[in-house]
Write a structure and sequence with these properties.
Length: 253
């Protein structure tokens, strides 16, 4: 039987309140700056028994230092100068960043690490080869969900091949496209951002859309062990609770 887990990308309310409402979370702050190991351990200790942590990989792995996201890293331009970060290149800087990322995931007892690539990580032979070399070098204690963006969607055969070869979960929005691989962990990992630009993250899901998500969950029965539906927008708390209720899952106060 497939276990369907619903949660949010980040905490839309206090952590104690969140733990009463949900069984899982995707920690977002790890993308901008990795916490201290003792902080990650504290998060694990304060969560209820059985609560599932997932987390977003540190931006050093995927985003070059020219990315505006580095402004939230707390690192100065001088500290970043000369660093060979980003685009999953198998550089010493990236491999060290992975080791640091993996340690935080281990301390949280994370199930899934989300590796979200920027749109400028385009579908090229060079990037595909770097991705291969990187993931063949690193050690993992959790499943890795790869969320390619940009023009990778135009090359499903290559995405499927890379996911199978490197044992990656294909992370998608299930209202936009189908996942191409669930990895050896047999896990489906979905991230729900919303529709429309530039106000995508202010999107509210309709009843009909949530019912379509329920149908997608039903289609996964027996195909995967776990299916994560992670909401990621301004209204994610409300939408995630509405979806849990639609699934008949109990929600705390």
């Amino acid at each position: 039987m497939t276990r369907v887990l619903v949660g949010c990308c980040g905490y839309p309310c206090s952590r104690p309140q969140y733990y009463r409402k949900f069984e899982t979370v995707e920690v977002q702050s790890t993308f901008y700056k990795l916490p201290k190991p003792e902080t990650a351990s504290k998060w694990r200790e304060e969560a209820p028994r059985g609560f599932i942590f997932n987390f977003k990989a540190f931006q050093a792995l995927t985003h070059p230092t020219t990315s505006p996201t580095w402004r939230r890293s707390g690192l100065s331009p001088e500290e970043l100068r000369g660093k060979e970060f980003g685009w999953l290149r198998p550089t010493e800087d990236n491999l060290r960043a992975w080791r640091e990322t993996a340690e935080i995931g281990r301390l949280m007892g994370a199930k899934v690490c989300v590796v979200q690539c920027p749109p400028n990580f385009r579908c090229t032979e060079e990037n595909a080869e770097n991705l291969r070399r990187f993931f063949k070098k690193v050690k993992r204690e959790f499943a890795v969900a790869w969320e390619p963006r940009g023009d990778w969607g135009e090359h499903p055969d290559l995405v499927r091949k890379l996911c199978r070869e490197l044992d990656l979960l294909h992370c998608v929005d299930p209202l936009r496209s189908d996942p191409l691989h669930f990895g050896s962990a047999k896990v489906a990992y979905f991230r729900l951002h919303g529709f429309g630009r530039p106000s995508m993250y202010h999107y509210r899901y309709s009843r009909e859309e949530l019912e379509r998500l329920r149908e997608r969950a039903g289609e996964l029965e027996g195909r995967v062990k776990e299916a994560y539906f992670m909401f990621n927008n301004v209204h994610m708390l409300e939408d995630a609770l509405r979806f849990r209720e639609l699934l008949g899952q109990e929600t705390g106060g």
